[in-house]
What we know:
The complex is a heterodimer. Chain A has one domain (2-263): ABC transporter involved in vitamin B12 uptake, BtuC. Chain A is 84% helix and 0% strand. Chain A is built from 13 helices and no strands. In chain A, α7 (130-146) runs antiparallel to α10 (171-193). Chain B has a single domain (2-240), classed as P-loop containing nucleotide triphosphate hydrolases (Rossmann fold), CATH 3.40.50.300. Chain B has nine helices and nine strands. Chain A binds chain B through residues 34, 151-156, 158-160, 162-169, 210, 213-220, and chain B through 45, 48-50, 67, 69, 71, 76-77, 80-83, 86-87, 90-91, 93-99, 124, 140.
Amino acid sequence: MTDFWLSYPFMQRAVLAGLLLSVVAGYYGSFVVQRRMSFLGAGLAHAAFGGIALGLLLGAEPLWVALPFTAVVATLIHVLRSTRQISSDTAIGILFSVSVALGLLFLSMREGSPVDAFSYLFGSILGLGWLDVWLSVGLLAVALATLPRLWGRWAYASFDEEAARAQGVATGRDSFLLTLCVALTLVVSIKMVGILLVSAWLVIPAAAARLVAGSFGAMTAGAVLISTASTLAGLYISWLADLPSGAAVVLLQALMFLFAWIIHRTIC
Amino acid sequence: MLHVDHMSVTLGRRCVLRDVSLHAGPGDFAAVMGPNGGGKSTLIRAILGLIPISSGTVRVTPGVSRIGYIPQTKTLDRTFPATPVDLVASGLQGRWPWLLSRQDRKPVLEALSIVGANHLAGSRLADLSGGELQRVYLARALVSDPPLVILDEPEAGVDQTGTTDLYDVLDSCRKSRNMAIVMVTHDWDVAYHHATKILLINGHTIASGVPSEALTDQAVREAFGHVGHSHDVIGRGHAHD
């Protein structure tokens, strides 16, 4: 285990970024699951593909383009569903497809092999640089900053939005902030887990924690714990067995979910 | 305390409520009745400021900053991982609690005790019956000691015994705290025997006043298109009178 941590700089970066991002993903994942926003996670992850492809087309660092691109898509989804003329699912479905279509268009306009773009689909620990680590630090700092004030408001509105609004909680603004935080977390996590699996990586730990938690606070803490444990163990297995990191992590999470479900069926 | 004057609400292009007035003072129990789609919940949501009004006024007496609110529980996710203590504390703090100190728990447990639900404090919401859950919601509405409590169809999903218990607790709190209650209900018995005033609406005001004056066969027929079960209750009520 010590060899695993110390021997390779790319592994140090992967473990650091994995640790930081899994804490953040577990934290936001609780709200995504409780608000039934899983499709939003999948939609934003695919929207990021458009940004990554644009970054590759422009010859820029894909992450720097994907972050604002996905933030704009998240904002559009929020605006469209706020009008109440279009359902949330429809808004996500439209923008998700448009972003993927744009991504394919950008890739077709680009000279050279599309292989580097496709590496974002599946994730790779080899691709994680210090930029990803520092962005992960930033995301964790934002998540910690939301804990004292926003966690309680987000949780209240997740359970009973009308009562929260009646007590003066600005649920619309809070919901937008949550969507934006989820979007940025997904984009930064894509290099490690891959576009195809990042939404599941966000959702499964919280879904597992929900099965055994007695309170929403315990669910959040449990989601962070499961997310962190599965990510670190998954990265280690991925390194040992030369497997795609995203697949190893998500399959471990699925096992943990199964374990939580058995506990739920046995005890609860 | 609560003054709704000539209020109209338009949602999209549809005028859902037109020229509705309602007044509730200390000790009043105002029952809002009417057919489905008649604008009852819209009225409640407009009073709470959840939707904008297109004309008229909604005023709450200055100094009354706290309004207890019990929404329709059938729309809420009962599998949310929480205990009654968490739920009641949310009404006190205006946010969901992560951890509660002993000091924070004290008023919460007192509110649960008032509604006879202190034995449920550590239960999971998913394990509560409809009646027990309504008691917990009532505790949440009462925990900040509000002078005005608003309920939206509290009898939905609750059996007859649970409903009777709930109204007994509500009546007792109204009298002991001199608070005003505004409640949307489909329960004719409750409207006739517990309410001090009735507002019968179907997009606009059909009748308002004390139950014996507002709940006439003619007004009920105009609101619902038929008299139905209300006739038995009203008839019985007049016989008692």
